[in-house]
Structures are given as structure tokens and as C-alpha cells.
Amino acid sequence: MITLNAVHKSYSSEVSIGPVTLQIPTGGITALVGPNGAGKSTMLTMVGRLLGIDAGSIEVAGYDVSSTSSKDLAKIVSILRQENHFVTRLTVRQLVGFGRFPYSKGRLTTADEEIISRSIDFLDLGELEHRYLDQLSGGQRQRAYVAMVLAQDTEHVLLDEPLNNLDMKHSVLMMQHLKRAATELGRTIVIVLHDINFAGHYADYICAMKHGQVVEFGSPAEIMRDEVLTGVFDTPVRVVEGPAGPLAVYY
Amino acid sequence: MANLLTRPLAPTASPRIHRGSGALPHGRSRTRYWVVFGILLLLAMSFGFGLLAWDNPMPLGTEGFWLIANMRANSLLTMAIVAFCQAVATVSFQTVTNNRIITPSIMGFESLYIAVQTGAVFFLGAAGVSAVQGLWQFSAQVALMVLLACLLYGWLLSGKLGNIQIMLLIGIILGAGLGSISTFMQRLLTPSEFDILTARLFGSMSNADMSYMPVAIPLVVLAGTALIASSKRLNVVALGRDTTMNLGINHRGEVMRTLFFVSILMAVSTALVGPMTFLGFLVATLAYQLADTYDHRYIFPVAFLTGFVVLAGAYFVMKNIFYAQGVVGIIIEAVGGITFLIFILRKGRL
């Protein structure tokens, strides 16, 4: 359970986020959607304590993110940002191994190695585990980053646009992996998505944001409607019944 | 799609050769690391021995031989300290700034050293050079440099800016400003004063005075131990601010702590022998190539040995071939620069 209570962050007199009050339920995938500049990524980074808040409070699994020590939070919530560029040269397995740092402090035990192996296999990276990250394609690298946060073994996983720069096939595969992580591993996944149809199909809850406020929160069935989406995205959207559920058409 | 979803969790139960996540993943990389380490150690020892024994007029092993060797051992100790300072400081600095093309010396250490030396000669004349030599003067210079660095880091990293890039930029500009003041004073010196000053401004092993060692060695040991002991955290910090915080490390605290120890090492090295702008950069870059791992526990020793080999090698060549002992900065920049270019062009990456 992630609870935001009147969370506020201001950049200037015109640009501010909140106050946001929101409860993200335990389990499943919650998708954050909304137009550019709505504050989705900012809110995600505040929940992941990478960015401080000006007012209000955020609790993850009952722990206040501003007062709980970062060390303890690293075992409760993990966050993956959109842009990841490392100066060091790492193999996939070494990268995933860093996910164990909150527990191992850099000294990996056999149990850690086992969790690393499972994370790698979970994302089908077994064949690539000794390859260096700079030898991978964008999709493979993205999977390696996700494997790292899964190896961190936190109940809550926050992902900022993990489908960015992925093609159709890899986007679908990534969402399937995340869905499995939610159901089979029991993780609570909060994810920023740009494609509303991915959110409609894979997410269990959709949270729509606009101008720094949460404007809609509900199941895909509740959000995937003409008037709701048109209002959120400020552009005419029609929802039609597709072969695999509702599809938003906005072209 | 269906088979992907229903596939068991661990599909590859077949035994793999090695599924460790260590710093040196393959047997091949392990062998390679230790071979490189061995070669560097051998080179370091032969240069060290060469400096003690080459051109030593007394036969090997006699009392006279050791008397002369002992005197030469002083510069060997200086080289070891400088190599250690430059190597450990540069690697740590590049890690916390997430940038592999800068060195801590651009943060104003060398400009400050040059400004102090030039100012002494400018205001006190030729006698000024001796006025800034001595244990107290040495300690004061170190303290001044560390203070400058801490003010800069503290102010820039804790303030609203809180940005490493801006800190670097301001450091460079301050350095350039101090440099211009020095250049201006140098223009006004008499040729003989300028000549005396120039000798101090080349990085030179003979600048070091053994009486500085009681201050220099404890400082270096303290800062070096602290940095090496935080190797595992540095490995994480190298992944950038977001990943570091995600993994539960206080990023800003870690960066500040590291920069503090880096400033001690750089200040000691600069106050001891003078500017060595290129050495740290060269050594760190070579060490990344040679060690070929992310793990600082492996990079630090290789960087130190590389630094010692480069310094001792340059000193050996300068002393025994060009008879210009001490002034090693010149040859390091010439030979080191070429080695560096060859490395980068062959591998195609930093």
C-alpha cells in the first residue's frame, strides 16, 4: 500500500504538483497516465524518495519515506528511472547483482547469487548474463535494469516509463514480464506509461494525472471511456471494443 | 505468448559453468587481471631496484652501496606517495563525479600551489622560494588547499544548486583565475627569479623534502584507507545518483566524504612535488583498461602500481638518459599521452 497525503511540490509560482492525496492498493500493476508535464514522473520519484517533497507525507507499506532511513527503504521500495547511463562497464549479471546491495552491502552470498540467477531467468536474460551492457540492444538493456530492481526483492517496484524506446514486440514482452512479476512474485508495481492502451490492457488500476493533480483513479474499465480519456488528455478519444478488450483511438 | 507466460520460473536448470556475479566474471578475466597485476608488480620492483642500483658506484651488497641506495630511497618513497595519492584520488574523484575525463587537479589545487609559489617569489624575491619551504609551510599549504576544496564542495553541493557539474565548472574557473594572477606576477619577475620559480613549478621528485614525511605519510594513510575501505560503496556511487539512492546509500553524504579525502590526497601530493596535472588522469584511465572491472577493490591496486611504474619509469629515464633528474612531469606527459592515445584508439572506448 502506497499512501500519499496532501503531497505538494512546487517549482515556481506557476509550476507545482499537488496537493495529491492518493492510495495505491497492494498487489497488481498501477499505471500512471496523463499528458506531458502532468507530474507523473515527479510523483513517482517522490514516492521513491529520489526527490524531496515540500508538504504532505508519503507512506510506503506504512513507512514514511521522508523519515525512514534510505537503507531500510531500499528493502521496501525500489525505483528505476527512465535514463540510465553508467560510466562503469558492467555485465548483465554484475548489474543485477547490485540489486542485492541493500542486503549484501557488496558481499554477495550464495543466497544472493540464487536470487540474482532467478531474476535473470525471470526476464529471459540467462544467455546474456555475462555480456556487457554496452553490447546489448536497448530492449535487452531495459530488461537488465528491470532484473536489477526485481533482484532488490522489494514489495513495491516503481518504474518510470520502462517502455520508452522499446518496439512493439519488446514493449509487449516487458509488460508480460511485469504482469508475471505482479502475479507470480506478488509485487506491487507502479509504472508510468505513455500508451493508454498498454495501461488499459495490462494494468489493474489506472491513475490519471493532469496539471499536477490526480484527476481519475480506477480500474481500466472505469478509465477506458470516451469522456474520461478525452478529459484527461485534452484530445478527442474514442474507445472501441477490440479483440482483446477496449482500445482507445485518438489518431 | 502463452508458453512464455506458463513457463516455469527457472527454465535453465542445466548446470552452468559459472553463475557468479563477482567483479571478474570469467576465469579468463581473472587470469588476465592477475597476470596484469604481476607484470605491473614486476615492473615496479625492477624500476625501484634500478633506481637504487643503476649507476651506483659501489659494488652490489657492500656497505657503501646501501649508503647510496638509502639516499636514493627517499625519492622512491616520494614517488610511491605521489603515485598512491594521484591514483586513488583520481579514481575516486572520477567515480563520484561520474565523469572519466576530468581529474581532481582541475579543482584549483595546482593553481593554488602555483599562486602561492609565485606570490612568494614575487613579493619576497629569490629568497621567497625558501620562505615557502619547511614543515610548517608545507602543512599550511596542505591545509589551505583542503580548506579551499572543502569550502567549494560544501558550498556547492549542499546549497540550492546541489549540482556536481556546476561545482566542477566553478572549480575550473577559480583555477583559471588563480592561474592568470600567477601568470601576471610571473611576467613582472626578473629572469633569474623566474628561473628559480620555474624549477619549482615543474612536478619534480626533488622538490620533496624528507622532513615533510611525518605530516604527509599519516595524512595519506588516513585518507587512502578511508577511500579504499569505502570501495564497495564507491562501486554503487559509480552508477549515478538515482541508482545509488535507490540502493539505500546517502548519495550526497558519500560524495562529500569522498571529495574530502580526495582533497587531502591531492593537497599532499601537490604540496610535496608540485603540479602533476596529467599523471592522475593517465593512471586512472590506464588502470580502468588494465583492470577491466567495475570493482574499486581491484582498480585501486592496479592504479597505484601503474602510477608507480609510470613515475619511476619516467624518473629512471630522465635521470639515466637525459641527466635531468627530478623533472618527471615532462616525460610523463609526452610518453604517457602517446600511450594513452594508443590505448584509446585500439580499444575505441574509455
Can you tell me about this structure?
- The complex is a heterodimer of chains A (251) and B (350).
- Chain A has 251 residues and is an alpha/beta fold.
- Chain A has a domain at 1-76 and 194-251: P-loop containing nucleotide triphosphate hydrolases (Rossmann fold, 3-Layer(aba) Sandwich), CATH 3.40.50.300.
- Chain A has ten helices and twelve strands.
- Chain A has a six-stranded mixed sheet with strand order 6-7-8-3-9-10, with helices on both faces.
- Chain A is globular and about 55 Å long.
- The two termini of chain A are 36 Å apart.
- Chain B has 350 residues and is an all-alpha fold.
- Chain B has a single domain (72-347), classed as ABC transporter involved in vitamin B12 uptake, BtuC, CATH 1.10.3470.10.
- Chain B is built from 15 helices and no strands.
- Chain B has helices spanning 2-6, 27-53, 63-97, 109-124, 128-131, 135-158, 164-187, 191-201, 213-229, 231-237, 241-246, 251-273, 277-291, 296-320, 329-347.
- Chain B is globular and about 60 Å long.
- At the A-B interface, helix 2, strand 6, helix 3, helix 5 and helix 7 of A face helix 10 and helix 11 of B.
